[in-house]
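Exercise: predict the fold of this chain.
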Amino acid sequence: STGKTGTALAISGPGLTNILTPMAQAYHDSIPMVVISSQIPTAFIGRGAGFLHELKNSTIMAQSASKESRRVQSPDEIAPSLESAYRLAETGRPGPVHVE
């Protein structure tokens, strides 16, 4: 172990569902990590249009295996959201944080 916060990237849909088990293990073992997942285009979120890799309530799904799951709404939010995610992953009881 390096003692540093881990980082993982995942695609939406199957990528996110496949990383939930390692996230849950990191949560159980108090291992800090930031999981960054992609998302379908904002205009299609929540419409149930059958968009490739669309998941219903992906952030709620990720919350079950993380300290927090948040969705970035605009490009301006990316850097502050990631900085906050790394701080949260390392603060208090360490654990995974999901950023979509």
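Check your answer against the key: The chain has a mean pLDDT of 88.
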